[in-house]
Amino acid sequence: MSAHGFTLFDTAIGRCGIAWSDRGIVGVQLPETRERETLGRLLKHYPDATQGTPPPAIQHALDNIIALLAGESADLSVAALDMRHVPPFHRRVYDVARAIAPGETISYGEIARQIGAAGSARAVGQALGRNPFAIVVPCHRVLAAGGKMGGFSANGGIGTKLRMLSIESAQVNGHDTMFEGDGTFGFDPVVAVAHLRESSAFMAGLIDAVGPLRMRLKRTPSIFVALAEAIVYQQLTGKAAATIYARVCALFPRAHEGPTPEKIWRVSPEKLRAAGLSNAKLLALKDLARKSLDGDIPTLSQVHGMEDEAIIERLVKVRGIGRWTVEMLLISRLGRSDMPPAADYGVRKGYALAFRKRNLPAPKALAKLGVQWKPYRSAASWYFWRALELPKK
User: Fold this and answer.
1) Which end of the chain is more exposed for a tag (fewer CB within 10 A), N or C?
2) Which CATH class is domain 223-332?
3) CATH code for 189-216+339-387?
4) SS (H, E, C) 190-240
5) How confident is the model at residue 283 (pLDDT cuts 50, 70, 90)?
6) What is the pLDDT of residues 258-282, one digit of tens each?
C-alpha cells in the first residue's frame, strides 16, 4: 500500500512508527528490537513514504496511541483509516475489533459470530494477524478460546500482547502502579539533563548525539509482579524471556493481570517447568511467593515511602534477586533519580564509548566517577545505555 509520509515516535513499549496517506492512517508499526529495525519494517511496507511531520488528524491519533500505551484514557475509535487495499472480510473483522474497549477482551469465535460468519474463527485470526493498524485496530484484545492468549505477530509475540493488555487493565481497573506523582519521574528531566551537560564535554556530546531524555517507566500492579518478571528475564534475550513469562502468566485466569503470590505458591513445579522455567528460577519464584505471603515484600504504597537502600535491603533477601535487579526496578519502575548501577555491563560499556576509553571501567571506579552526576545518576545511566545504539564512529 502506498503512503505519503511516516514518522517514528516513542511510547511506553518502545519506539513505534506510523504511516499515512491523504485518507488517513495506512499502517502502525510496533517496536522491533532496535529502532533501525522498526524503521526498516515500516519502509518495507511503505517504500515510497517520506519521513515528515504528521498532519493534525494523524498527530491526534499518534498522541492517543502514546497515551493509551502509557496507561491513560484515549479514544482511537474515530481515527481515520485508509482501507482501500484491505479485503472486505478483513474490514468487517477490524470494525468489530475497534469496538472492543480498553481493558476488555473477546474471542476470535465471538468476532466470527458478530460478523455473521460463525465457524470462521481461524479466518478471523488470519485477518487479525495481517492487521496493518496495530493498536488502532486493537487485535491484542482478541483471545483464543477459553481465554488463552493466542498468537501475536508483532516483535515479542505474546509477550508484547500480554504487556499491552496489562497496561490497559491497570488503567481501567484502577490497579496501583509504580508511577510517582504525575505518572512520570520522581525528578525533573530537564533539570537532570542540564546538570549532566555541565559535568563534562564528553557527557554533553553524548546528550547531543542521543537527544532528549526519553526514559519511560513500566507499569506493574505490584512489587511481586515486577520481581517475578525480573526473575524470568534473568540471563535470557528479551524475546525468549517474554515468551516464557507469557507462558507462566497463561497458566492462570486473566493472564494479562499477572501472577499473584497465591497462584505461584499453589501451582505445581511441573507446570512451571513446562512453561520454560529453569529449576533455579522456579525455586526463586516460589521463594518470592512465600515471602510475599508472609508479608516480607513491601507493597507499592510502602515502597513509595522508603529510601532506596532500605528497598534494596528488603528485596535482595529473595532468592535469585540481587542488588542489580533491584536497582533496575528502582530506575525503570519507580523512576528514582539517583540510582548508580555501576556493575551493569551496558552502563560500563556505554561510558567507555562516550568517554573514548579503550577498556571498560571497573564497577568501583565507575561508582567513584559517578559522583559528578549526582543526584541524577539514573539519567546518566540511561544515556550510557543509549550510547550502545549510536552508529560507531
Assistant:
1) C
2) mainly alpha
3) 1.10.1670.40
4) HHHHHHHHHHCHHHHHHHHHHCCCCCCCCCCCCHHHHHHHHHHHCCCCHHH
5) very high
6) 789 999 999 999 999 999 999 999 9
